[in-house]
Amino acid sequence: MARLSMERDDRGIHMSGIPTIYVGLSQVELLKHLAAAGYDRMKVKDPAGYQAAWTAAQAREGKPTSPPPTSPTAPSVPAAGPQPIKNKVTRKPSPPETAQPAPAGSPGAPLPATEPKTELPNPAPTEGDDIAEQLRQLQIARQAGGLSPEAEREYQVLTEYQEWVQAQPPDFFPAGTTEAAKKKLFAKVNVVKKNQKMDKIKADKNLDRQVEEKSVDIAAAKKQNELDREAVRILTKGEPLDLFKKAYELNHEGDKEILRATIYGTCLQSSRTTRGLQVFISGGTGTGKSNAIKASINLIPPEQVTQGSFSDKAFFYQLAGKKKPVVFLDDITISDSQVATMKRCMTNFQMPTDHHTISGTERKPEVMTIPARTMWLGTAVSETGDDQLKNRYLSLEIIPGETDNAAYIKWELKRRQEGRPEIEVNGDVLTARAIIAHIKSRDFIVKGFTNIEFKYDHDRRLVNIALDLIEGSAILHYLQRDHKEIDGTIHVTPTVDDLTAALDFSMFRITDIRSEGRLTRTERALDELIQKHMKGRDNIELTQREIVDLSGKTTNPVRTLLFGRDGSQDKITGGLLEKAMWYRIDREMVEGRRMGQVVIIISKHDYGPEHSGSFAWLESADGTVK
Asked: Alpha-carbon distance 316 to 348, whole Å?
């Protein structure tokens, strides 16, 4: 749409933007005619000066200056509403007046004479006029009854565009800039603004996330610092094992030997002198062995524990890059390849275990490594692996008695009544983990064993287990022992308390000096059952089948207790027939129902009082291990 402009300067008043045909009308009539013709976006800067406007218009058209009429006659105005503007408007000459014309300049005077049939061109519509018209039509529709979502979006865009154009300084657009170019620039500006807005939103969200993470990190660090201080306090002035027992009892009842063996074995991962302590738990189905070991490893920082089932070479991939890891094997079958790997790791406890392989399409050599000082924990119904593997780990058995079962049921009912999960974490558990982390972040050398005497010095395996347990206790209590840091390694001297703690395991309790080696708890339990069955007789003759019926067990476990793992009547590898002197085989018994069966002769045996700690002792009584 055209815009009416009337401006005053030192040369007078200038009008522009209106058809020449309307020059000479009064201001009111001019506005009416222009409104009727669709000129509704007029801008009148100086409403006064009609006479001067007339003179200026005549001068621009190159006509002799004549006084303006005093009574302009307005052309006919359409009845109502906007009318389309025709391309050309032809004004006919006025008919001859019969009456005396009014004086020039007086009201009602006719328009000045013009050439007949002079065609006055209507100003060509511009792109800006199109946008203004679109906005006008949209605004009318908007006020009348609302716009569709698409039309409303168009209205908002056009409004923003027009406001943006009007907001630019006069010299912002070069001369001759088309409306299309302005629109294109406006679109680019909008894209930039939109991107900036999105970038700001993303930046704000990222900042919020960082602040939140930082707050969480700060809170976690503060909590960890508190745990670390409490751990050092207990290591310095308290009894660490008491805390571990309290945290352990949160998730399991009984079987404290498993807890202590696990804790000592974990401490030994920081020893430079130990052979390592690997712990495997055996026991019947439903005896709670898995839950006992889970409650124990719950006290170890989770990132240090790897558990599950594994393929033959998975150990090398799962443990690569870890430092002092703990591997938990829960009641799984171990392949021959895995047994070989575990034996190498246990034998070379202080050294990494390498596996050389070929990988990739280019068949490049690759070395996979299990870290040094890896600890192995496991559970099984019977002892795991072959005899060589068995000789490398500490085997603990769970044989619950009536008292143990009653205590467990009481504890389990309480747990369920309180609605606690099977494995729970509380402040004591977190403090226990902080103690383990403190110990495993250091290296130790434990020395001072020259004054210890052993009852069974021929049982080297048991001697080494005792020495390792002494080391584990000394490391756990190092802040309460004589210690000194040399070149980044803490040197600790154990005391008699560490020897006492180490020997507080059933394997070290002497049952009879005539037994050639240590009877396990299950072996002794079976022998006590047979001794009770003898009812005072000096000896008794029983076949393997009769002992199976007497014990209520299946054949394989009884065979292992009698002849050893993978043993038989023709190949004794351990068990009661190897360890207990009051057991022997009579291969001559062939009479009656025992035809073809081997008969085992058991003599009467009285168990003396147990003497805890009698497996080893200090030669001197000064209270220190030297």
From this structure: 15
Q: How far apart are CA 418 and CA 62, in angstroms?
A: 107
Nearest residue to 354 (alpha-carbon basis) of 389, 386, 391, 313: 313
- CATH code given to domain 521-603: 1.10.10
Cα distance between residue 423 and residue 286, in whole Å: 17
pLDDT score, position 492: 93
Within a 10 A sphere around the Cβ of 38, how many other Cβ atoms? 17
The full 3-state SS of 466-495, as one line of letters, equals HHHHHHHHHHHCHHHCEEEEECCEEEEECE
Domains 244-441 and 521-603 alike in fold: no
3-state secondary structure 427-447: HHHHHHHHHHHHHHCCCEEEC
d(CA 341, CA 310): 12
Domain ranges of the chain: 5-124, 244-441, 521-603
- Nearest CA to 334 out of 356, 353, 315, 306 is that of 315
Measure CA 427 to chain center: 22
- Per the CB < 8 A criterion, the answer to whether 516 and 584 are in contact is no
What does the alpha-carbon distance between residue 3 and residue 44 come to, in Å, rounded to a whole number?
A: 9
Cα separation, 557 vs 517, in Å, equals 20
For 230-278, what is each residue's pLDDT tens digit?
Answer: 999 999 998 999 999 999 999 988 888 889 999 999 999 999 999 888 8
What one-character DSSP code corresponds to residue 110?
Answer: P
At 79, is the pLDDT very low, low, confident or very high (cuts 50, 70, 90)? very low
Place of tokens 């949209």: 138
CA gap 467, 486 in Å, rounded: 23
Contacts for 531-534: CB closer than 8 Å, 24+ residues apart = 531/602, 531/604, 531/605, 534/602, 534/604
Q: For the CA atoms of the chain, what is the radius of gyration?
A: 52
User: Residue 487's closest CA among 422, 443, 440, 536?
Assistant: 443
On the 0-12 / 13-18 / 19+ scale of CB atoms within 10 A, 284 is middle
Tokens of 502: 């180490």
Q: Which residue has the tokens 């490594």?
A: 369
Q: Which residues of 556-575 are buried (b: 16+ CB within 10 A; e: fewer)?
A: ebbbbbbbbbebebeeeebb
Q: How confident is the model at residue 22 (pLDDT cuts 50, 70, 90)?
A: very low
> Tokens for 332?
């799984």
Q: Distance (Å, rounded) from C-alpha 35 to C-alpha 146?
A: 25
Domain at 244-441, CATH class: alpha beta
| Residues with Cβ within 8 Å of residue 67, at least 6 apart in sequence | 104, 105
Contact yes or no for 290/403 (Cβ under 8 A): no
Distances (CA, A) of 413 to 44, 252, 292, 400, 438: 94, 12, 17, 18, 35
- pLDDT on residue 61: 59
